[in-house]
Amino acid sequence: MAEIGLGLAALGRPAYINLGRDLPADRSVAAMRARAHEVLDAAYARGVRYLDAARSYGRSEEFLGGWLTTRPDVTDVTVGSKWGYTYTANWQLDAEVHEVKDHSVATFERQLAETRALLGRWLDLYQIHSVTPDSPALTDGALHQRLAELGAEGVRIGLSTSGPRQADAIRAALGVKVDGRPLFRAVQATWNPLEPSAGDALAEAHDAGCLVIVKEGLANGRLAVDPPAAVAEIGAEVDAAPDAVVLAAALRQPWVDIVLSGASSVAQLDSNLAAAGVALDPDLLRGLAEPPAEYWQRRSALGWS
């Protein structure tokens, strides 16, 4: 079965689009750093070994790098980060623009230097953030060459996807080669009972040897805060909270390697981790799927809070 990893999007910046964030009223840098380290400590103690950050997740790389620096006994984690979005909110909750997307070689070079300054030797996986089928990152030969050079240094190269055509982006990425070899060796995509449309493409990626990571398994909190009746009913039957039921469905997909928890507190983390013990036929939730265009439209309407 797949394992649960910890994503730091909700812990690295004061405003995010997740519903049900469990954060203190004080969202200063110091308070958020303390909360991130608290959750990282708990995650590691409970066996979590994959940690996910991004340049656009505020200070997530800084918080993670600082945590790793002060815990020399932590030697068995895998660290992934992402480039392609620049965080622009300047720690403001009500910023007009929170992040700006750009997949150019220049942005890659700048953000790789920033990531290395914060994560250094711990960087194992570097992904292009939020690739869609029309992204220039899928066709830019100069970028591909530069990514391949990073890959030759021992960093796994991957991409994350978003939008209603995730499957198309994944399949296009699987066809990208440099010197006859596949460039991308990891795919991180949204998959949950409301938006399972990337499943077949993720299975193809898994069969091609890619590490497959599921993000937004709780639909940015929708499935935990206001779960459909079917989720609540199953939870009552198996004595599990809605978030554990939903994440269990992702963990039991045969093509998945890692399912990310987006927990913002130790309590949320513990509830998410309970998914590993939930015996569930994921087909029981198949009827919850929304048309992808509708799902992503609703996601884009979520407010930053």
From TrEMBL:
It comes from the Bacteria. SUPFAM superfamilies: NAD(P)-linked oxidoreductase (SSF51430). It holds the Pfam family Aldo_ket_red. Residues 31-283 form the NADP-dependent oxidoreductase domain. This is Oxidoreductase. The lineage of its organism: Bacteria, Bacillati, Actinomycetota, Actinomycetes, Micromonosporales.
